[in-house]
């Protein structure tokens, strides 16, 4: 089943066309990751799926309805989004920011129900920011801040959550922390996650469904183990690489070939024997 | 550290109240009304605050009745409303542009209203009523021009501020041109209008102002929650189900109109729009546009400034615009210095 699909959409900023006749479906309960080289249209596709960019042709469907003609708040109760850049208002506390995620469930005279309160506390606990509740967001580190934004998106309580490059600007430790958090949300809460990621190896490790894009088109899609091959990496990213098994998880691991003359003297291990060769 | 309280009814309705913001708002309102009473009692025919209140309740002598009802009360009420309208307009613009400098008097709306008013005074020899109309038209046209020029896939903060400053500079040129074209009588009228004054304001200024405020202030307050979400960026607001462009268009229209009618009633009184929202915010210590607190802060600022202008220098009365200009100039310098230290400009 696919609650969120794009049907032959043409995506453009002003007159600059990014993608034409693009069709893609997000499998329910998947952790879908969209990868591709810079300017391949992956963030644009995510913007279209989250109804921030209106396709010039075709349509994006959410539960069978055209997403752009649905009431904005109704969409916001089904589909959450973690944008690439958000601004924390000056002097706002973590708890107040997370509480803003409840907005689509509230009204002018229904501003704060006991349920709102409970969900905000749960969202902060799930992302490990509960002990920061009274701190000001401006005082936090980059990794903590990103977890606060994710907590806000969680408080929105949407079955679908889209994340636009959630690990950009974070160091490797915090990148892994955020991705582990996403994987946990996907597994324990059964949410459908869609993320745009830069790092192909991280994508292969965490995704249950991978969408590879190039030049505004879908180059391949499916389970990472099937999709990520040396041939695909060269075709999509223009990088010659060997693909071995990740010694930790057994998922595909992309190792770019060394520049001519700089390879190690030892013969290259065959793809399947990678784990043994690495140790 | 904030303690936002929720007030709930058995029917499942609830509102969120920040106790500190509510207290600040009530204290400011009390201060504004107290100064207003003092202001009604001061002048060539002085009255104690007790006499003023008694007269307002209908227990005054005929002379007191006349002074209060026909002369001073409308002027003070105009001051309260002008202050509130300017402050709400300022708070809306600062929030939309996400910049404390993005207030209507920096963006050229005051100058736009001035060009409209001077055009009526100098070119058409219009009366006070026509001048007010010219000021409103000038303000609205300026608002529309700034909006169209700043529009490119949404109005963004810095573009709005930069375009507004450019427009303000051009309009200042137009103002000087109009004054050089005027004869002595018209030029004097023009300069008096431009200073911003509450002298001689009566009920005919009050009612239209009240009508506009009665519609637009509640409308702005109702849009306060979406506006607060917009401060996190357009994408985050979209994600929460805000109709971003509509919210922004409604609130910009509301802010331009509030600023224009306030300017039409009292001339371009500077710096209230710039400073009231920031002062309110520092007192409430609450993020977000603080519209209600800004409104009472603006009303309080303007009656205090008017009291200073009329009473503090003995017999020499000043137009209120001079006082807000001097106080506001000091504030603007302080703001520029702190913004610079914070690395925001």
TrEMBL record, chain A:
<keyword id="KW-0547">Nucleotide-binding</keyword>
<dbReference type="GO" id="GO:0005886">
    <property type="term" value="C:plasma membrane"/>
</dbReference>
<dbReference type="Pfam" id="PF00005">
    <property type="entry name" value="ABC_tran"/>
</dbReference>
<dbReference type="GO" id="GO:0016887">
    <property type="term" value="F:ATP hydrolysis activity"/>
</dbReference>
<protein>
    <submittedName>
        <fullName>Iron complex transport system ATP-binding protein</fullName>
    </submittedName>
</protein>
<dbReference type="InterPro" id="IPR003593">
    <property type="entry name" value="AAA+_ATPase"/>
</dbReference>
<dbReference type="GO" id="GO:0006826">
    <property type="term" value="P:iron ion transport"/>
</dbReference>
<keyword id="KW-0406">Ion transport</keyword>
<feature type="compositionally biased region" description="Low complexity">
    <location>
        <begin position="264"/>
        <end position="279"/>
    </location>
</feature>
<keyword id="KW-1003">Cell membrane</keyword>
<keyword id="KW-0067">ATP-binding</keyword>
<dbReference type="InterPro" id="IPR027417">
    <property type="entry name" value="P-loop_NTPase"/>
</dbReference>
<keyword id="KW-0408">Iron</keyword>
<feature type="region of interest" description="Disordered">
    <location>
        <begin position="259"/>
        <end position="279"/>
    </location>
</feature>
<keyword id="KW-0472">Membrane</keyword>
<dbReference type="InterPro" id="IPR003439">
    <property type="entry name" value="ABC_transporter-like_ATP-bd"/>
</dbReference>
<keyword id="KW-0813">Transport</keyword>
<dbReference type="InterPro" id="IPR017871">
    <property type="entry name" value="ABC_transporter-like_CS"/>
</dbReference>
<dbReference type="InterPro" id="IPR051535">
    <property type="entry name" value="Siderophore_ABC-ATPase"/>
</dbReference>
<feature type="domain" description="ABC transporter">
    <location>
        <begin position="4"/>
        <end position="240"/>
    </location>
</feature>
<dbReference type="GO" id="GO:0005524">
    <property type="term" value="F:ATP binding"/>
</dbReference>
<keyword id="KW-0410">Iron transport</keyword>
Automatic annotation (TrEMBL), chain B:
<feature type="transmembrane region" description="Helical">
    <location>
        <begin position="130"/>
        <end position="150"/>
    </location>
</feature>
<dbReference type="GO" id="GO:0022857">
    <property type="term" value="F:transmembrane transporter activity"/>
</dbReference>
<feature type="transmembrane region" description="Helical">
    <location>
        <begin position="106"/>
        <end position="124"/>
    </location>
</feature>
<feature type="transmembrane region" description="Helical">
    <location>
        <begin position="76"/>
        <end position="94"/>
    </location>
</feature>
<protein>
    <submittedName>
        <fullName>Iron complex transport system permease protein</fullName>
    </submittedName>
</protein>
<keyword id="KW-0813">Transport</keyword>
<keyword id="KW-1003">Cell membrane</keyword>
<dbReference type="InterPro" id="IPR037294">
    <property type="entry name" value="ABC_BtuC-like"/>
</dbReference>
<keyword id="KW-0472">Membrane</keyword>
<dbReference type="InterPro" id="IPR000522">
    <property type="entry name" value="ABC_transptr_permease_BtuC"/>
</dbReference>
<feature type="transmembrane region" description="Helical">
    <location>
        <begin position="249"/>
        <end position="271"/>
    </location>
</feature>
<dbReference type="GO" id="GO:0033214">
    <property type="term" value="P:siderophore-iron import into cell"/>
</dbReference>
<feature type="transmembrane region" description="Helical">
    <location>
        <begin position="291"/>
        <end position="309"/>
    </location>
</feature>
<dbReference type="GO" id="GO:0005886">
    <property type="term" value="C:plasma membrane"/>
</dbReference>
<feature type="transmembrane region" description="Helical">
    <location>
        <begin position="318"/>
        <end position="337"/>
    </location>
</feature>
<comment type="similarity">
    <text>Belongs to the binding-protein-dependent transport system permease family. FecCD subfamily.</text>
</comment>
<dbReference type="Pfam" id="PF01032">
    <property type="entry name" value="FecCD"/>
</dbReference>
<keyword id="KW-0812">Transmembrane</keyword>
<feature type="transmembrane region" description="Helical">
    <location>
        <begin position="206"/>
        <end position="224"/>
    </location>
</feature>
<feature type="transmembrane region" description="Helical">
    <location>
        <begin position="157"/>
        <end position="179"/>
    </location>
</feature>
<keyword id="KW-1133">Transmembrane helix</keyword>
<feature type="transmembrane region" description="Helical">
    <location>
        <begin position="21"/>
        <end position="41"/>
    </location>
</feature>
């Amino acid at each position: 089943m696919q609650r969120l699909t794009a049907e032959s959409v043409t995506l453009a900023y002003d007159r600059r066309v990014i993608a034409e006749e693009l069709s893609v479906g997000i499998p329910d309960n998947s952790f879908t990751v969209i990868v591709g080289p810079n300017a391949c249209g992956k963030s644009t596709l995510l913007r279209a799926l989250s109804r921030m960019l209106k396709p010039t042709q075709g349509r994006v469907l959410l539960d069978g309805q055209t997403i752009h003609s649905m009431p904005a708040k109704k969409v916001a109760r089904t589909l959450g989004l973690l944008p690439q850049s958000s601004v924390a208002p000056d002097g706002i506390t973590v708890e107040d920011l997370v509480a803003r995620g409840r907005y689509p469930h509230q009204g002018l005279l229904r501003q704060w129900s006991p349920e709102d309160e409970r969900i905000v506390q749960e969202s902060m606990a799930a992302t490990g920011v509960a002990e920061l509740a009274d701190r000001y967001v401006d005082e936090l580190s980059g990794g903590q801040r990103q977890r606060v934004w994710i907590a806000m998106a969680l408080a929105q309580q949407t079955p679908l959550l889209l994340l636009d490059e959630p690990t950009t600007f974070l160091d490797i430790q915090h990148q892994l922390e955020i991705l582990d958090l996403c994987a946990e949300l996907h597994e324990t809460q059964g949410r459908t996650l869609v993320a745009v990621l830069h790092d192909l190896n991280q994508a292969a490790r965490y995704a249950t469904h991978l969408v590879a894009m190039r030049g505004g088109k879908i180059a391949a899609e499916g389970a990472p183990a099937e999709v990520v091959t040396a041939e695909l990496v060269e075709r999509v990213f223009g990088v010659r690489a060997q693909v071995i098994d990740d010694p930790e998880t057994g998922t595909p691991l992309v190792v770019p070939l060394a520049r001519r003359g700089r390879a190690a003297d030892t013969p290259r291990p065959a793809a399947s024997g990678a784990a043994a060769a690495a140790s | 550290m904030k303690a936002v309280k929720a007030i709930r009814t058995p029917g499942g309705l609830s509102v969120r109240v920040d106790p500190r913001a509510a207290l600040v708002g009530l204290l400011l309102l009390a201060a504004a009304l107290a100064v207003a009473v003092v202001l009604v009692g001061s002048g060539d025919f002085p009255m104690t605050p007790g006499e003023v209140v008694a007269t307002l309740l209908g227990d005054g002598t005929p002379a007191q009745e006349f002074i209060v009802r026909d002369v001073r009360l409308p002027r003070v009420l105009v001051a309260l409303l002008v202050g509130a309208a300017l402050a709400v307009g300022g708070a809306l613009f600062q929030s939309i542009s996400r910049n404390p400098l993005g207030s209507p008097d920096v963006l050229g709306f005051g100058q736009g209203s001035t060009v409209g008013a001077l055009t009526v005074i100098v070119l058409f020899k219009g009366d006070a009523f026509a001048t007010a109309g010219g000021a409103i038209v000038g303000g609205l046209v300026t608002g529309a021009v700034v909006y169209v020029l700043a529009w490119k896939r949404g109005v963004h903060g810095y573009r709005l501020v930069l375009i507004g400053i450019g427009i303000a500079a051009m309009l200042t040129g137009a103002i000087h041109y109009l004054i050089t074209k005027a004869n002595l009588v018209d030029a004097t009228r023009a300069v008096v209008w431009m200073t911003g004054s509450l002298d001689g304001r009566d009920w005919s200024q009050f009612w239209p102002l009240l009508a506009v405020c009665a519609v637009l202030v509640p409308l702005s307050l109702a849009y306060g929650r979406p506006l607060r979400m917009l401060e996190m960026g357009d994408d985050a607001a979209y994600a929460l189900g805000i109709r971003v462009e509509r919210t922004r268009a409604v609130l910009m229209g509301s802010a331009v109109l509030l600023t224009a009618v306030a300017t039409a009633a009292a001339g371009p009184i500077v710096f209230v729009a710039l400073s009231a929202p920031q002062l309110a915010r520092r007192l409430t210590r609450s993020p977000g546009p603080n519209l209600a607190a800004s409104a009472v802060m603006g009303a309080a600022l303007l009656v205090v400034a008017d009291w200073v202008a009329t009473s503090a220098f003995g017999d020499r009365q000043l137009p209120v615009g001079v006082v807000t200009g001097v106080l506001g100039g000091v504030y603007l310098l302080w703001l520029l210095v702190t913004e610079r230290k914070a690395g925001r400009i």
